[in-house]
Design a protein that fits this description.
Layout (H helix, E strand, L loop, with lengths): L1 H13 L2 E4 L2 E5 L7 H4 L7 E8 L5 H14 L5 E5 L4 E5 L7 E2 L18 E6 L2 E7 L5 H19 L8 H4 L20 H4 L28 E8 H10 L4 H18 L9 E9 L13 E9 L7 H15 L2 H16 L1 H4 L3 H15 L6 E8 L4 H4 L2 E7 L8 E8 L2 E8 L5 H12 L4 E5 L5
Parallel strand pairs: 6-7, 10-12, 12-14
Antiparallel strand pairs: 1-2, 2-5, 3-8, 3-13, 4-5, 7-8, 9-15, 9-16, 10-11, 14-15
Helix pairs in contact: 3-4, 7-8, 8-9, 8-14
């Protein structure tokens, strides 16, 4: 009986959509509640997903497609409001207009300004880009939105092409019937749904080394993109007996290790730690398009001396293998959810809760990591439009602490690895891509900023 009560309580806590005398509103999911407290004009909480087509984007068609898709994803078309105890979300009352793109992604955004919708669609030349606040979605939810936007764009562009009908595409969790009502489970807080109760927390990691560099001018966010041949990268991963993500994490850690070796001073902490997001949908069934990712760490204790790439890859493989399973990830869910369920925490007014959340975010988050690499995996689209999309790209949320982080996805035999940075220094990116090339993996490097 206690098990049934526990599951029923979890389901109640997981529901985020409400209606009262003032109208519809949404609660924030467990990962989102900290975002308003730690986000600002530079660390905006935005991440970016984009598609570059083989032809110039037609703005009226894109706007018509956006209107249709927003109606199917109403829980993304929201603004942030400040309550007495917590922030909450309300529907944005106006149509969302396509914006002109800019050189620096994920900047020029203030979620606290009244009237700011928590995502935006931008275009320039052949590119369609969506930038989402982590308050409303993670990479999976954001990619589902972009995929449906692209399908609808081409459907409107070529109304006679029946290959893009929902029935033709077939059953796929990523492609929605735009005429159907949203499933309430699409907005559920899956962290609360799968809260296991009395589980131990994961061990607390020590403070980690951070890159030292002057910051770029405010409003600037550099993206250095490496277009990598997927075949050789997979072959090299197999040679090291690790997954692709583990291999890239090892190369990242090796680059950080070499940077650490050339630094000095009190900030030269001997712990290197790279954060790797894990899509929890791989372990727990949910339809949510909200956040449902958690983070694991691969790390090096540099007091033990430098390691070769092969040694680092082996350590990353075993460290992640110890953490990434359903039982291990429940420990991370427990740590995230338990505080939000505590009556003593819930009773603190938001004005006092926000500084506490910033402190916790630093203590359990940014202080423990030297860098980040997030792999969304392979992007798949209906065959009817595959040849009309040249590439997909993914840029992560800018961070004023780690300064530089990496994001990865693959499309048509290419690995697209983007380093988003607020740092003047390009040392990490250069070491990373140079190492891949030295290993015999072809890399074409692009940058949104010209070389100084």
């Amino acid at each position: 009986m206690r098990r049934i009560d526990h599951q029923a309580r979890n389901r109640r806590k997981a529901s985020l959509g409400f209606t009262d005398d003032a109208g519809s509103w949404y609660a924030l999911d467990n990962a989102a509640i900290i975002m308003p407290a730690v986000s600002g004009p530079v660390e905006t909480s935005l991440f970016r997903l984009s598609a570059t087509l083989t032809e110039i984007v037609r703005l009226p068609v894109l706007q018509a497609a956006l209107d249709r898709v927003v109606a199917r994803f109403p829980y993304f078309a929201v603004e942030l409001r400040r309550g007495f105890f917590w922030h909450y979300l309300v529907p944005h009352p106006e149509a969302i207009r396509v914006e002109a793109d800019s050189v620096s992604p994920c900047q020029g955004f203030d979620m606290h300004r009244r009237g700011t919708v928590l995502f935006r669609v931008r275009t320039r030349d052949r590119t369609i880009a969506c930038e989402f606040s982590h308050v409303i979605a993670d990479g999976t939810g954001g990619m589902r939105f972009l995929k449906n936007l692209l399908v609808e764009y081409f459907r409107i562009l070529d109304p006679g092409d029946r290959r893009l009908d929902r029935e033709t595409i077939g059953p796929d969790i990523d492609f929605f019937d735009l005429d159907a009502r949203p499933d309430p489970e699409e907005t559920e807080d899956a962290y609360n749904k799968y809260y296991p109760g009395k589980y131990p927390f994961p061990p607390q990691a020590p403070a980690a080394f951070h890159l030292r560099s002057e910051r770029l001018a405010r409003g600037s966010h550099r993206v250095m993109m490496g277009l990598i041949d997927l075949g050789p990268a997979l072959a090299k991963s197999k040679e090291y007996r690790v997954s692709l993500t583990e291999f890239l994490a090892a190369v990242y850690l090796e680059a950080m290790q070499s940077i650490w070796s050339g630094t000095s001073g009190s900030f030269r902490r001997p712990q290197l730690s790279i954060e790797i997001p894990v899509n929890m949908r791989s372990f727990f069934e949910t339809k949510t398009n909200r956040n449902f990712s958690l983070f694991v760490h691969a790390w090096l204790d540099l007091r033990l001396g430098p390691r070769t790439l092969a040694e680092i890859a082996a350590k990353v493989h075993h460290q992640l293998g110890q953490e990434i399973d359903a039982q291990g990830m429940k420990r991370h869910i427990t740590r995230n959810v338990r505080g939000g369920r505590s009556l003593s925490i819930r009773a603190i007014p938001l004005a006092f809760k926000a500084p506490l959340m910033r402190s916790l975010y630093a203590h359990f988050g940014t202080n423990m990591i030297s860098g980040l690499i997030s792999n969304l995996g392979a992007v798949r689209m209906p065959a009817a439009i595959e040849d009309r999309i040249d590439r997909f790209d993914f840029v992560g949320t800018p961070s004023t602490t780690i300064l530089t982080g990496a994001t990865v996805l693959s499309w048509k035999g290419k690995l697209h690895c983007a380093f988003g940075s607020l740092a003047v220094s390009r040392d990490l990116e250069r070491r990373f891509f140079s190492r891949l090339q030295a290993l015999g993996i072809p890399v074409l490097v692009e940058c949104n900023f010209k070389e100084d």
